[in-house]
Amino acid sequence: MVLQPALLHATFQAIEQYRADFIGSMYQRLFVLYSDVAHFFEYTCMEEQQQKLLMMLAFILENIDNPEQLARPLQRLGQIHVHYGIQRADFDKVGVALIETFAEYLDERWTPEHAAAWTTAYRFITQLMFDEPGSAA
Ligand code: HEM
User: Fold this and answer.
1) Ligand 1, atom 7: nearest CA belongs to which residue?
2) Structural domains of the chain, count
């Protein structure tokens, strides 16, 4: 699995000034595309959740060159999600919503290379959260 840090950073920087809107749009898209996941967030303060997801994505990108820094925090995060009953299939749904929202915000700057970079990165993050060591390498 080959990560593309430069493309990932460029994408995240491109949404820098719209981050709050971006992440709000991501959840809106998620709930429109996949209403079946909305129940997980029934008691969630979505403003806080949006901040948490953004901070986690920023933390992941900061450490994308040092996966050993990511393993423990992401395993812990994965355990929290498993505790909520969230499954691999649900992760795929968030992945679709996230990547489609990047495509929307980057518009003509979004390329197949960006899409491939995020698809790979998201798979990598998911594998670390589900504690599948060998497969994330
Ligand atoms: C790479 C994918 C994901 C990342 C990086 C991520 C990140 C986070 C973070 C940072 C938190 C806060 C944890 C805490 O408070 O300690 C969280 C909570 C949560 N996440 Fe995720 N998440 C991901 C995927 C998903 C998916 C696929 C779902 C369900 C469809 C989901 C649903 C939730 C829920 C329900 C909470 C708890 C909200 C609450 O406190 O009420 N997440 N997530």
Assistant:
1) 53
2) 1
CATH number of the domain residue 64 falls in? 1.10.490.10
Cβ contact 114:106 at 8 Å: yes
pLDDT of 23-51, one tens digit each? Answer: 999 999 999 999 999 999 999 999 999 99
Contact (CB, 8 A) for 125 and 64: no
**Ligand 1 center to 15 CA (angstroms):** 21
Q: Which among 78, 77, 126, 81 is positioned nearest to 99, based on CA atoms?
A: 126
Per-residue pLDDT tens over the stretch 91-130:
999 999 999 999 999 999 999 999 999 999 999 999 999 9
Binding site membership of 44 for ligand 1 (Cβ less than 6 Å): yes
Burial class of residue 133, CB neighbours in 10 A (0-12, 13-18, 19+): exposed
